[in-house]
TrEMBL record:
Its EC number is 4.2.2.2. Residues 1-22 form the signal peptide. InterPro entries: AmbAllergen (IPR018082), Pec_lyase (IPR002022), Pectin_lyas_fold (IPR012334), Pectin_lyase_fold/virulence (IPR011050), PEL (IPR045032). Belongs to the polysaccharide lyase 1 family. Pfam families: Pectate_lyase_4 (PF00544). This is Pectate lyase.
């Protein structure tokens, strides 16, 4: 190799070393550098809320304190953050300060204007009508989206959500169903709260608008309830999900910084997939918190099914599975703390965990641990790797004493006010087709009035400090281009002297 070429390559490699090192280490740009610190903060927040409730309970008993305040404090740190405010409807954006776990930084539409959905129709996904949900979610600026009343929104195709949006269904019965359902792709900072999502089916091969200035062709979707693709800083809270063709929630292709909390899952086969493919290395940076959810009737498997990444499963109530509750492949870290696992009657399905398509000799060093979990009806969790040692004593120093309070902590899971489905009849639309929706409110028009004019649907301005939509870093893009060019140059001229991995498109965000 000519000396000048060596010098140029050395300078390029030196300047690119942080980026290349991050690529080799499979670190996503928005991955938390210390996941154990996030776990400890979740436990700290939880124990603070539990202690506050216990202290108030003692005060109320001894001194005749406020029973109303005691009734709103459950010990659940998310709900206790905002539900005790009697004026919460006028302080909706306070919700954005209440997230915990890996998705705690999700801003949603905080600081943006309110957008009121008044029209439940979805006639033209390429040119959505002002006043519809689709029109609101594609806007470029941060928006806090609320609803004028109860609505059944039957989507024609995927609802492609833009960054910095909150879909806030509190105070109304909002049901989303139909083609594709909710898609979060190449975006960030989205909060979805208090929404029913069900009976989602594949759709596509059509033009769909994703921003005010971009309409693109979409292929056939999978029929997920909520599909997450290469996105970060997301929070799904108090949703009820069931009866979808594919997954209820799937997160793949370099997604990270996600919290799924206080939700109710029922009547489904493959509930939740975290990770695209065993060979897709960027998913090693996926970090997801699954907290205070109720996995209810008619579920089979994948609560969740993990590939790579770090998954914190904390204080959930697993009341039914047919095959297994938590599964994984490709060496994910699974930290199970303070959950209640109730095994089915089937003696062959008592195990909570399943290493999917992997020999035992290959998974013995995977870090799967159980800490303070409650096992019911013969359920058992098979730990492995560092989960078998005392190495995580420090990480568990804030003991998950909350396991005994699972019923209380998950009592409001799902959409507020929903009755719990205790039906014993089970069908799995993902296998046998989608059934007919039950309990929907209204017709295609919902309770909102159709409005085709260009009126002001943005409501009042909450504040002027809204964060700007995310933009690509010019410096990062240049470095990535240089890295790719360097890889191609060396491969072309010097064979296999250096082989850089294909850079994930997530690094361009």
């Amino acid at each position: 190799m000519p000396p000048n070429t060596c010098i140029i390559l050395f300078c390029l490699l030196t300047s690119l070393s942080p980026l290349i090192r991050a690529t080799f280490n499979l670190t996503l740009p928005h991955q938390h550098p210390n996941p154990e610190a996030v776990v400890q903060e979740v436990q700290r927040r939880l124990n603070v809320s539990i202690s506050r409730r216990q202290m108030l309970s003692t005060t109320t008993t001894n001194n005749g304190g406020s029973k109303d305040q005691l009734s709103c404090l459950t010990g659940n740190p998310i709900d206790d953050c905002w539900r005790c405010d009697p004026n919460w409807a006028n302080n909706r954006q306070r919700l954005a300060d209440c997230a915990i776990g890996f998705g705690h930084a999700a801003l949603g539409g905080k600081g943006g204007q309110f957008y009121v959905v008044t029209d439940s129709s979805d006639h033209d996904p390429a040119n959505p009508t002002p006043g519809t949900l689709r029109y609101g979610v594609i806007q470029s600026e941060p928006l806090w989206i609320i609803f004028s009343g109860n609505m059944l929104i039957k989507l024609k195709h995927e609802l492609i959500v833009n960054s910095f949006k909150t879909i806030d269904g509190r105070g109304a019965n909002i049901q989303i169903t139909g083609g594709g359902c909710i898609t979060l792709q190449y975006i960030s900072n989205v909060i979805i709260h208090n929404i029913h999502v069900s009976h989602c089916v594949p759709s596509g091969n059509t033009m769909i608008r994703s921003t005010p200035t971009h309409v693109g062709h979409r292929g056939i979707s999978d029929g997920d309830g909520i599909s997450i693709f290469n996105s970060h800083d997301l929070w799904i809270d108090h949703c009820s999900l069931s009866y979808c063709t594919d997954g209820l929630i799937d997160a793949i292709m370099g997604s990270t910084g996600i919290t799924i909390s206080n939700s109710y899952f029922a009547h489904h086969n493959e509930v939740m997939l975290l990770g695209h493919d065993d060979k897709y290395l960027p998913d090693s940076g996926m970090q997801v918190t699954i907290a205070f959810n109720h996995f209810g009737v008619g579920l089979v498997q994948r609560m969740p099914r993990c590939r790579r990444g770090y998954i914190h499963v904390v204080n959930n109530d697993f009341t039914e599975w047919k095959m297994y509750a938590i599964g994984g492949s490709a060496n994910p870290t699974i930290n199970s703390q303070g959950n209640r696992y109730t095994a089915p009657v089937d003696p062959d399905a008592k195990e909570v965990t399943k290493r999917v398509d992997t020999n035992e000799k290959d998974w013995t060093d995977w870090n799967w641990r159980t800490d303070g979990d409650i096992m019911v009806n013969g359920a058992f969790f098979v730990p492995s790797g560092q989960g078998l040692t005392a190495q995580y004593t420090k990480a568990s120093s804030v003991e998950p004493k909350s396991a005994a309070l699972i019923t209380q902590l998950t009592s409001n899971s799902g959409v507020f006010g929903d009755p719990r489905d205790t039906s014993v009849s089970i069908s799995y639309p993902g296998v046998n087709g989608v059934g007919t929706s039950t309990g929907g409110s209204g017709s295609d028009g919902g309770s909102g009035s159709s409005s085709g004019d260009g009126g002001n649907f943005f409501g009042m301005i909450f504040g002027s400090s809204a964060p700007p939509p995310p933009s690509s870093s010019t410096t990062t893009t240049i470095l990535l281009s240089l890295s790719i060019s360097l890889s191609l140059y060396i491969t072309t001229n010097y064979g296999t002297l250096l082989s850089l991995p294909l850079l994930s498109s997530s690094l361009l965000l």
